[in-house]
Amino acid sequence: MSESKRNPTLQIAGVEIEDEFAEAFDMKATRVIITAHDERWAAEAAAAMTGFGTSVIACGIETAVEKTLSPDETPDGRPGVSILAFAVSGSELEKQIPRRVGQCVLTCPTTAIYAGIDVPDGVAAKRVPIGKMVRFFGDGNQISKVVGTEKGPRRFWRVPVMDGEFVCEHDVARVDGIGGGNFLLLGRSLDAITIACRAACDAMKGVDGVITPFPGGAARSGSKVGSKYSKLFASTNDAFCPTLRKVGPTLLRDEEDAALEIVIDGMSFEAIAESMKVGITAACRAGADAGLLRVTAGNYGGKLGKHHFRLHEVMS
What terms describe the molecular function in GO for this protein (predicted)? Predict the structure, then answer.
């Protein structure tokens, strides 16, 4: 993180938007669609599949619900949920998705799962298995069928289960994504940044192609690269810890007593930039009177990732 910069020229509702940039990096991504007999079963399956999916540091993938889908938006005309997943490598994505589908979606009553990325002619060079792996649970009783669509042929599997059949698509496209978009909310109190954070995350749910994978969309454990302990890849971002401001270098100002970070993964640079703009605007409008003082962003001097989201450009 570069030294804190005071630039009062850009404000929203009186909250300073610092002239900083968020540093993000390349990831591999995919999208799946879960459907079910009703909204509750679909939501239960989605919650299970995306559990323990906050950070690639230890979870394997970063995954969360992108949005809920109405019956007229899903392949089988039932209520659904769209899920995005990101990993640092294609092989990790190919390992994590079938495991989570097998343990969290196949097991949930009435569900089905489909590919959520359209590709030309229905074929992508890189694909992530779904039914290709999960079908073996049918113990030889599974049935496959190739269905011709406007976008090319698609293979589906029907696996016998105790409430009927589990329908799943053979595989789903794997595409390039971006992880690590972010902004930090700094304020006079925890209440102030909680109000701002929740307003931001609620607003960002309206942007397609992005997720905020941490609990409630926010992380209090913002991290820096590396640690005094050689086995750790990351450790607490001490420059933003209020309890450490008197024992080491700090980026907190005197009146700032709490900070939260919102991390964003997205299918494109444009989607992340749009979500940051929407989220920061909502945070400032909701949190200004409560004590939100500043919005900044996390970076490592440009050494970690090639995607740089400059706050003043994002908000222009």
Answer: formylmethanofuran-tetrahydromethanopterin N-formyltransferase activity; hydrolase activity
Interatomic CA distance for residues 218 and 212, integer angstroms = 7
pLDDT of 171 above 60: yes
Give Cα separations from 310 to 132, 182, 194, 269, 315 (angstroms).
42, 10, 24, 12, 9
Length of the chain equals 316
Rounded to whole angstroms, the Cα distance separating 300 from 225 reads: 8
Residue 30 has, within 13 A of its CA and on its CB side, a CA count of 27
Half-sphere exposure of 186 (CA within 13 A, CB side): 24
Q: How far is CA 87 from CA 30, 79, 178, 249, 298, in A?
A: 9, 27, 10, 33, 20
- CB-neighbour burial class of residue 32 (10 A; exposed 0-12, middle 13-18, buried 19+): buried
SS3 category, 14: coil
* Cα radius of gyration (the chain): 21
Whether the full predicted model's pTM is greater than 0.90, yes or no, is yes
Q: How far apart are CA 236 and CA 277, in angstroms?
A: 26
Phi-psi region of 139 (alpha: psi -120 to 50; beta: other; left: phi over 0): left
Instruction: Of 86, 26, 57, 90, give the one whose Cα is nearest residue 306.
Output: 26
* Nearest residue to 265 (alpha-carbon basis) of 43, 65, 115: 65
- CA distances to 27, 70, 259, 283, 288 from 294, rounded to whole Å, are 29, 38, 10, 10, 9
Query: pLDDT per residue over 234-257, tens digit each?
Result: 899 999 999 999 999 999 999 999
Domains within the chain, CATH numbers bracketed: 11-23+178-315 (3.30.70.520), 27-175 (3.30.70.520)
- DSSP letters spanning 89-109: SHHHHHHHHHHHIIIIITTST
Helices (H), the chain: 39-50, 90-100, 131-134, 190-204, 269-287, 311-314
Query: Do β-strands 164-169 and 152-161 pair in parallel, antiparallel, or remain unpaired?
Result: antiparallel
